[in-house]
Amino acid sequence: MMRARRWDFGILIGGEDAVIEKIHQLFFSHSSLDEADVRNILASEQRKILAGCRIVFSRVFPVGEVKPHLHPLWQTAEQFGAVCTNQIDDQVTHVVANSLGTDKVNWALSSGK
C-alpha cells in the first residue's frame, strides 16, 4: 500500500509520485536530452492505459450517428490506447453502455466481456 507523503511545498502526494518518477526516469534515459520531449513521453504512457482494449459503445451516440469517432468518449478511449469500433465481434473486449438490455450489452454479458 502506498502511503501519501507531504513534500516541503505542502502538496499531498499519493500514487502520483510513482507516475512522476517514471516520467522523470524516461525523460532522463533519453539518448539526447535536447530531443527529449515530456509531452511525447506522457502521451506514450497514456496510450498504455487502455492498450489491448477493443471497445464498442451501446446507446452512447444517437442512432444513425455518421461520425461516432468524433464523440468525446470515443476520442478519449483512443487517446488512452483503446481501439474503438461500431461492430461487435470476438475481438471486442469491452462494451461501454448507457443502459442495460441492448443487443450489445446482452452479447457482452453472454460472452463474458
Write the layout of secondary structure elements.
Elements: E1 5-6, E2 12-13, H1 16-28, H2 38-47, E3 54-58, H3 72-79, E4 83-85, E5 94-97, H4 103-111
Parallel strand pairs: 3-4, 3-5
Antiparallel strand pairs: 1-2
GO cellular component, one term: nucleus
Protein name: protein-serine/threonine phosphatase
EC number: 3.1.3.16
* Name of the top-level CATH class of the largest domain: Alpha Beta
Contiguous low-pLDDT stretches (5 residues minimum) are: 1-10
Per CATH, what is the topology of the largest domain? Answer: Rossmann fold
Count of spatially separate domains: 2
Largest sheet: 3 strands, parallel
Mean pLDDT value: 85
The H-and-E topology, N to C, reads as EEHHEHEEH
Strand order of the largest sheet: 4-3-5
CATH architecture label of the largest domain: 3-Layer(aba) Sandwich
Q: Given the helix and strand composition, which structural class is it? A: alpha/beta
CA-CA gap between termini: 29 Å
Percent of residues in β-strands: 5-15%
Coarse morphology = elongated
Please count the helical segments.
4
Q: Rg to the nearest angstrom?
A: 19 Å
How many individual β-strands? 5
CATH superfamily membership of the largest domain, which one? BRCT domain
The helix content, as a percent range, equals: 25-40%
